[in-house]
Structures are given as structure tokens and as C-alpha cells.
Specification:
Helices cover about 20% and strands about 20% of the residues. The chain is built from one helix and two strands, in the order αββ.
Length: about 70
Amino acid sequence: AFSDFPHFKSTKLYPDRHELVNYFSEYANKHNILKYCKFDAEVVSANFKNDKWKIEYKTDIVSSEPLLLT
């Protein structure tokens, strides 16, 4: 769990995939970060330089709207 967002009380000791997806979705919604996420994409490279990340990715899907995992 993230330190600023504890797991739900109902979460099992070893959460299944549905619990994890729900947890990450709730976290992303709370912090309004879905607009920065790219789904159905393959990361080609990730480099950290000058205090910034440069992420290169490729995808076959053309969409301007992020997908919400539920």
C-alpha cells in the first residue's frame, strides 16, 4: 500500500487481482492522475535526466481519453 493511502479494511492479506485493480483505481482517482496514464501501451524506453522522466511508448490504439480500470 502507498503510505498516504492504506489498503481497505476488507483487503485480504494477499489481495487478488480484482482487489489490486480496485485499490489502484481508487488511488488514481483520489490523486487525479489518470489523465497522465497511457493504457494498452508498451514502454519502449524510460530515462531519467535533469530531474525529469522521458518515457517513450508505442500503441496500436488511438485515443485521447484515458481508460478507467474497474
